[in-house]
Amino acid sequence: MSESKPRGKLLRNLEFTASQIAGILEGEIEGNPDVAVYKLAKIEEGEIGSLTFLANPKYTSYIYSTEASITLVNKDFVPEQALSTTLIKVKDAYESFSKLLEYYNKVKYNKTGLESPVFLSESTVYGENFYLGAFSYLGNNVRIGNDVKIYPNVYIGDNVTIGDNVVIFAGAKIYSETIIGKGCVIHSGAIIGADGFGFAPNSNGEYSKVPQTGNVILGKNVDVGAGTTIDRATLGSTILRDGVKLDNQIQIAHNVEIGEHTAIAAQTGIAGSTKIGRNCKIGGQVGIVGHITIGDRVRIQAQSGIGRNVKDDEFLQGSPALNYADYNKSYVHFKNLPKLVNRINDFDKKSEDK
What we know:
Layout: E1 8-9, E2 16-17, H1 18-25, E3 28-30, E4 36-37, E5 39-40, E6 50-54, E7 70-74, E8 86-90, H2 93-108, E9 113-114, E10 119-120, E11 131-132, E12 137-138, E13 143-144, E14 149-150, E15 155-156, E16 161-162, E17 167-168, E18 173-174, E19 179-180, E20 185-186, E21 191-194, E22 199-201, E23 207-209, E24 215-218, E25 223-224, E26 229-231, E27 237-240, E28 245-246, E29 251-252, E30 257-258, E31 263-264, E32 269-270, E33 275-276, E34 281-282, E35 287-288, E36 293-294, E37 299-300, E38 305-306, E39 315-318, E40 321-323, H3 324-353
Parallel strand pairs: 5-6, 6-7, 7-8, 9-11, 10-12, 11-14, 12-15, 13-16, 14-17, 15-18, 16-19, 17-20, 18-21, 19-24, 20-25, 21-26, 24-27, 25-28, 26-29, 27-30, 28-31, 29-32, 30-33, 31-34, 32-35, 33-36, 34-37, 35-38, 37-39
Antiparallel strand pairs: 1-5, 2-4, 3-8, 22-23, 39-40
């Protein structure tokens, strides 16, 4: 598995020199400061005009054969052979490469203006450097901050508030009353603020709809993955606090609260009114029942089922979930169950023969 990012034009028709990149990354140049790049490449597939990086020693051999014009390396890297690539030495090559990609994204997504056709209510208010893609709809009393980018086919309902530097990608749906904090990223197909799954059985055995009158609140710098759904509260708010990161295709039910800087992987489902603490890490396809509390810094392995309250710092796996160390010990016995059963059967047979 290569450590580099996918290839492609760095900034379409724009080029950056080694001097410019070193300035952005506060790096030191060894080689030609005027050499220019316009695309990214894996180190083993580098070609003239491309930029790559070396962070994993496993790929060191490729730096002597790569044709990449510029290579980011750690400051302690000392070449043992002649190089054709210009080096930019930085404290952490991988971190610097990520920083460069972040800079690239800012330029790439720096669109402004209103495309056509779009619908904006007369009561919509938006700040500076606003971009609104074609076929988008903005309802009544929408409030939008500065440097917000909304891509085509986005729906934003009435009374939505969006902070500065938010990006909403194509096809996302933001229902009424939602509040989105500064620096959030909402990916394509996400649905924020749809009704929670609220139904009450009546005397006829039918289900009556319970009105969902609350909203969704996203704190600052929340990421919502593609196809993820976050339901509005029945009363009050469904809340994702600052720095929460959600993968694709996650279901967050009504009145859930998730603490700061918790990360959740794809296809996890969280039932209503559950509270999750800060700095938790939750794997993919985890199921969490409603009306429980999960503490801070909890780690939950993929495909686990959580049906009870969880204390701070627990590490869980299984369904129903067990302490991670206990699960691993028990798993040894799970694998040996057929052998144990045969031994018991043999023992019973010998006992009968006696």
